[in-house]
Give the backbone structure.
Amino acid sequence: MTISRAETALSYSHDERSNPREELTATTEDSESDIVLDDTNPSDLFYIALGDSLTAGIGSSVEDYLRLNAFVPQLVEQLRSEQGVYVENHGIPGITSGQLLTYLQEGPGMTQKLNQANLITITIGGNDLLSALNTEDIDENHLQTRLQQYRKNLSTIIEHIVLFNDTAAIYVMDLYLPFPEEHALHETGTEVIPTFNAIVQDVVEAYTNVHRVSVYDTFYGHAQDYTHINEQDVHPNDEGYRLIADAFYETISD
């Protein structure tokens, strides 16, 4: 299977394709090395959202400079119907699984934050996939290399978190298919994305407190309804983010 770069190119607005290396530097340098929760109730849920532009909420509508229709704010609103929630959003647009691992290992204060968290959500892998598809002359060997690296990175991410906190509930979202049937990447996506998602399932099954949140079936066949793919942007719209938030909440509530 060979795909040309011309067929796979996707466009993003300026804030959606910011340099993830710059994002990592800015985020880690601006973070404090310690975290104090004195202003919160001890019974509050400490929720850390980790991941890429989906965690950051890229593609959702902006109101007063806030992306309140992204999945993290919607999920927090649902959780707060039951208890107090303290949340930190560490979503970094453009980040890959390898870069998320580096962020967790080297980000100032991350060890203590992970140690204190009760709930952790992760969205990662979409940029690993897109970086493979946006490379000229993709073939099976190249894709297999990407898949193997993703498995290694995701496994190490979970191992790193569990090393510092083996009681927090961790929820990892799988990938959705953002390409409608007429899109040049639809056939490739239907072949490759389920393989990515099988890796997520394999990794989470090794732990009792790590769970997969599946949105693949929800989005399948509805890319034009739930994403901005008509503008060559794979990110969810507000309705897509609502469905993602619901999927997380339903899985957490099970």
